[in-house]
Amino acid sequence: ALPICIVYINAFDSGALLIGSGYGNTTVNSFYYSVTSNQSVFNVTTQTTNVSYSIVTKNGLLQVPTLQYTESGNIYTFVANCVANEFVEFKLFGGSSNSVNLGSDYFQASVNQNTFSMNSNPLSESYVLVTKNGLLQVPLINYQLISGNVIALTANCRFGDIVECRSFTGNVGP
């Protein structure tokens, strides 16, 4: 028998408000997959309009779109294969033009770098998910928003650290 890993997929649809005070509505579809080892391609039943509108984790570590996986329609392909006993989760967001916009900026840090300029201007740290080498950072403890689009980490990076900023803008907030 071949080893398997479990894949769990959540799909949010229909103008979902991801954070804030309740605009829109949310449809959640959950899918569980048992896959063979060395699988890198996942065919999900829900698709997004942009790879930035997906949040994908592998063993709890946030994956960076286009760097660690790609999306084409409803096909997600990882750069590295899923091996036995790994857990992969997909969260796919969709909505109307009045809903939330998700931005994804990633950076390969230089020595001692701690500031990063995003393409979007979130309202505050609360509207940005920041990871350093896939590990989720805590707002106001590990990072802060120091201007409209600049995140500052409280600890300097090492050369080659991967920092990703996933921002929520648009129809968000109370």
Mean pLDDT: 76
In spatial order, strands of the major sheet run 2-1-8-4-5
| Category by helix and strand content | mainly beta
Q: Unreliable runs, pLDDT <50, ≥5 residues?
A: 1-30
Proportion of beta-strand residues = over 45%
Elements, N to C (H/E): EEEEEEEEEEEEEEE
| Contiguous helical run count | 0
- How far is the N terminus from the C terminus? 52 Å
User: What can be said about the biggest beta sheet?
Assistant: 5 strands, mixed
**Quaternary structure of the protein:** single chain
Structure description:
With 174 residues, this protein is mainly β. It has no helices and 15 strands. It has a five-stranded mixed beta sheet, with no helix packed on it. The radius of gyration is 17 Å and the shape is globular.
Write the layout of secondary structure elements.
Elements: E1 4-13, E2 27-36, E3 39-43, E4 54-58, E5 61-62, E6 69-72, E7 75-82, E8 87-92, E9 100-108, E10 115-117, E11 128-132, E12 135-136, E13 143-145, E14 150-153, E15 162-170
Parallel strand pairs: 1-8
Antiparallel strand pairs: 1-2, 3-7, 4-5, 4-8, 6-7, 9-15, 10-14, 11-12, 11-15, 13-14
